[in-house]
Amino acid sequence: MKRAAVYSRSGRSRVPQTPAAAVPATPALSWRKRHARSLKVAAGVAAALVLGVALWTLTPPRGISQADLEAVVQKVLDAQQPAPAAADAYESILPSVVHVRGLPDAPDADVASGGEPQSGTGVVIVDTGIILTNLHVVHGAKAIKIVFHDGLESDAVVICVQPEHDLAVLQAKTIPDDLSAATLRSTQGLRPGEPVIAVGFPFGIGPSVSTGVISGLGREYQNADGKRILTNLIQFDAAVNPGNSGGPLITLEGEVIGIVTGLLNPTEQRVFIGIGFAVPIENAAGAVGLSPF
Question: Which ranges of 59-85 would DSSP assign to H, the alpha helix?
Answer without folding.
Answer: 66-79
